[in-house]
Amino acid sequence: MEATKQTVEMTDEELRQFEAFREEQAARKAKEQAKRDREAYKELVDETIEGAIPLLQDLSLGIKETKLAVLNDFRSVINMKAEVLRLKKDGQRTDTFTNSAGDKRITVGYYETDGYRDTVEDGIAIVKEYIEGLANNEETKALVKMLARNAQGTLKASRIVQLRKIAEESGNERFMEGVQIIEEAYQPAISKQFIRAEVKNDNGAWIAIPLGMTEA
């Protein structure tokens, strides 16, 4: 069926109303389309998440099981190392093993983070008491800096070692008492064990095997 064209005469006011009607219709359709697009986006997000989570859960379980298996394998190696070399394991946080060919090595261990028992606050108070009795000079500023805490609100153990040396040089018993209380409150937190595996490339450089989501 052939379409026929018709001519409609309108006054200026009728034309203005018609144009306003068309704009309103276009705006409504655009709004409805935007809503449909948002719904489609949300559905895509939901579908993608539902598909990805099981894969990542399987990956996580696989990593955990592999890590435990490797750590169990190396437990006997570490024990034999201590026996053969007559080593004391106290305080050692990492062990590195390299194959005979010298092109593969694995490091197992754990990280320590500084931590203190509540009594540390008593030691800090005593040290601050000593600092407040000093003149406001560069020495005082250096001591205050040593008591600064990190983002987690913990003192850095390395700074307390420096503070101990300064306390001993000062000869002030009260100062040394405060530092001793801080040292006795030290209780480092041990993280979970880690594994680092490396192989040598053709240029003889050690290349880490990616074991994390960010490295792979």
Listing every helix as H and every strand as E from the N terminus to the C terminus, the arrangement reads HEEHHHHEE
User: How big a fraction of the residues is strand?
Assistant: 5-15%
Output the structural class: alpha+beta
Give the integer mean of the pLDDT values.
86
Report the count of strand segments.
Answer: 4
The residue fraction in helices comes out at: 55-70%
What's the Cα radius of gyration? Answer: 35 Å
Number of helices: 5
Query: Alpha-carbon distance between the termini?
Result: 63 Å
Write up this protein.
This protein is of the alpha+beta class. 56% of the residues lie in helices and 14% in strands. It has 5 helices and 4 strands. The chain has helices at residues 12-84, 120-132, 138-146, 157-170, 173-184; strands at 94-98, 104-113, 189-200, 206-208. It has a 4-stranded antiparallel beta sheet, with helices on one face. The longest helix is centred in the first third of the chain and has 73 residues, at 12-84. The radius of gyration is 35 Å and the shape is flat. The two termini are 63 Å apart. The mean pLDDT is 86.
